[in-house]
Every structure is written in structure tokens, then in C-alpha cells.
Amino acid sequence: MGVLSEFKAFAVKGNVVDMAVGIIIGAAFGKIVSSFVGDVVMPPIGLLIGGVDFSALAVTLKAADGNVPAVVLAYGKFIQTCIDFIIVAFAIFMGVKAINRLKREEAVAPSLPPVPTREEELLGEIRDLLKAQNNRP
Prior knowledge:
By secondary structure, this protein is mainly alpha-helical. It has helices at 3-11, 14-49, 75-108, 118-134, and strands spanning 59-62, 71-73. It has one domain (3-132): Orthogonal Bundle (Non-ribosomal Peptide Synthetase Peptidyl Carrier Protein, Chain A).
């Protein structure tokens, strides 16, 4: 089996396609969360703190020198990224929690024992008759 045919067999498996869709949706969700944090959550927080723009918070380690840009620790962007992560992690946690609850509800549903076939009933009767014969003195 050639490498190309092995790759084709691997790529068309359901799990790989599901994973690819999940990655694409996850990337889009990440952009939505980043916009939500940067454009909706952080401005009011900055306003409450005193008009602080978190994306501009930074410490300059070395000033710009000619064509060399400044060396800056942009901790405000880091704070925004941490908030992004917390929101995404919480959303994933809630999704997994909901899925696990649904799985538990499916597992808890009692299943009735299967109805024995006529053949199984006859075998049970034969077994009982043999036991009765063996127990006679």
C-alpha cells in the first residue's frame, strides 16, 4: 500500500474529519472570544480602573534607537490574552460538562434483560430436569 493511499485512508476516517471541523470551529471561536474580550470586556474594566487601555500597558526596557524598535514588555496584551484563555477554557469546560451529563443520563437508563428465545427456555427446562434426576437417591 503506497503512502498516498494510506494517507487517503487516514484522511477519510470519520474521526479525522470531525477533528478538522473542530479545529476550524475552534479557531473561529477563538477570534470571537478575542474580539469579545478586547472590544467588549476590557474597555469597561479599563474605564472602571480609571480610563486605562489595557492593550497599551507596557514597560519599555530599551527605547527606540534610530531604525531599531523599542524593546517593550507588553503586559497589557498578556492580561487580555489570559482573559481570552479563561473565557475559552470556561466555555470548553461547560461544553464538556454538558456532554458528560448527557452520557451519564444515557448510561443510567436501565435496560431490560433480553427475553429468552424458545430454544433457551427449552435448554433451561432440560437443565432443570437433569438436575432433578441427579438429585434422586
